[in-house]
From TrEMBL:
Domain of life: Bacteria
Cellular compartment(s): Membrane
Top-tier EC class: hydrolase
Organism encoding this protein: Laceyella sediminis
Keyword Secreted recorded: no
Similarity remark: Belongs to the peptidase M50B family.
Residue span(s) of domain PDZ: 202-233
Protein name in UniProt: Zinc metalloprotease
Any one Pfam family match given in the protein's UniProt record, by short name: PDZ_6
SUPFAM superfamilies tied to this protein: PDZ domain-like (SSF50156)
High-level lineage: Bacteria, Bacillati, Bacillota, Bacilli, Bacillales
EC number(s) given by UniProt: 3.4.24.-
Length: 419
């Protein structure tokens, strides 16, 4: 239960940062944001502040920022509907489809003859004597369908579709961008706390391990794998994963000599290992603030390359879909990291944030990357894609993602509890 709670808190924090990016840049572009939600499914908490409903929903596996005009606007007043309305400064600011509670302001009443809630912003009402009255709507007028269902109108200039392609692209791109920026910040903090890892001095070689059989000894300093420099555990770990168990050339410095050994890594779970342990006190040194910031960017870049490379291998079939991890595996890893201390928890949070940012940039329907593709096509064609067709593409993509989620969750449960 502790692991579950930690994972939900970490994931909710990452989702909040992601959605905050969308929210801030949407507001900056003048888009009406109807809801800022953490989670999916039924609403368990909601509070309206300003123009936006801030909510927490039952399934803590994501979130969303609902911008006016992203989907077809559902705010409407049907002809013949009896409405009651209050007005301020000669503009209707609240329109009720039921008899409202007692008001300090004067209330006008009539049946809707016609209404324009997006362009001209007016309502034409017919009173009891059959006379028609033209009323101007306030740009932030609220439509009260019932006591619980209250919706603000969205004039065209406040809708997502009315903005420039640059403004729309930035509102969508900002979500993944904020996750990537958070990764840089977390790696910077981690470096300030733990120092810079830039040496791999061997403390012990496990008996009968690949490293022992190859001739690597305690006191050696590992510097490269297959000619590529390795200066920390992450680089070494990824180089061994890339080998897939084939022999690699491990370069070490022994005293003043440089030696190269052929080593065949052994598979252990999803990792490949050669059987060495390192002198942790000698692997790191204290980092200055400038070095920590540099390390934050460097680690983010290195891990981005690793993640993109892994995704490429997944697409080309070089990596099995069995290696994918879902919420159960992420929760298991996050919980174990939390039990190990604050530094491992910060590292896994940074990696989850980076994965979330990169994954959302993939051109998969229903993800931010796909929406950016549609915005790019709109810029090339100089006219928007049919919203109905785009919505259908995203709907199908979301359904496929849910199927993938079910598969990886089953895979996680099998690996964690039954392997």
């Amino acid at each position: 239960m502790q692991q579950v709670i930690v994972f939900i808190l970490v994931l909710s924090f990452l989702v909040f940062i992601h959605e905050l990016g969308h929210f801030l840049f949407a507001k900056r572009a003048g888009i009406l944001v109807r809801e800022f939600a953490i989670g999916f499914g039924p609403k368990i908490f909601g509070k309206i502040h300003g123009e936006t409903m801030y909510s927490i929903r039952a399934l803590p596996l994501g979130g969303f920022v609902r911008m006016a005009g992203e989907d077809a606007e559902l705010v409407e007043l049907k002809t013949g509907t009896l409405v009651y309305a209050t007005q301020t400064a000669d503009k209707l600011d609240h329109v009720y489809l039921y008899e409202p509670p007692q008001q300090d302001q004067a209330v006008v009443m009539g049946r809707v003859v016609e209404a324009d809630l997006e362009k001209e912003l007016y309502i034409l009402l017919e009173d009891q004597d059959g006379r028609e009255h033209h009323y101007t709507l306030h740009p932030q007028a609220m439509i009260h369908y019932d006591q619980k269902n209250v919706v603000q109108i969205a004039p065209l200039d406040r809708q997502f579709g009315s903005k420039t392609t640059g403004q729309k692209a930035m509102a969508i791109f900002a979500g993944p961008l904020f996750n990537i920026v958070l990764t840089v910040i977390l790696f910077t903090v981690l470096t300030l706390m733990s120092g810079i890892e830039d040496r791999l001095p061997v403390d012990e070689v496990v008996a009968n391990s690949p490293a022992a059989k190859a001739g690597i000894q305690a006191g050696d300093l590992i510097t490269a794998v297959d000619g590529k420099e390795v200066r920390n555990m992450d680089q070494l770990r990824y180089a061994l994963i890339e080998s897939k168990g084939r022999e690699v050339k491990v370069t070490v410095k022994r005293g003043e000599q440089v030696k190269e050994f052929g080593v065949t890594p052994q598979k252990n779970g999803e990792l490949y290992q050669i059987g060495v342990q390192f002198i942790h006190d000698e692997m790191r040194r204290e980092a200055s603030f400038g070095e920590a910031i540099g390390a934050g960017f460097t680690k983010t870049y290195d891990w981005t390359v690793m993640i993109v490379d892994s995704l490429g291998k997944l697409v080309t079939g070089q990596m099995s879909v069995e290696s994918l991890g879902g919420p159960v595996q992420m929760g298991n890893i996050t919980g174990k990291a939390a039990e190990s201390g604050i530094e491992p928890l910060i590292q896994i949070t940074a990696l989850l944030s980076l994965n979330l940012g990169i994954f959302n940039l993939l051109p998969i329907p229903a993800l931010d990357g796909s929406r950016l593709v549609f915005i790019g096509l709109e810029a090339i064609r100089r006219r928007p894609i049919d919203p109905t067709k785009e919505s259908m593409v995203h709907f199908v993509g979301f359904a496929l993602l849910m199927m993938l989620m079910i598969f990886v969750t089953y895979n996680d449960i099998r690996k964690i509890f039954f392997s």
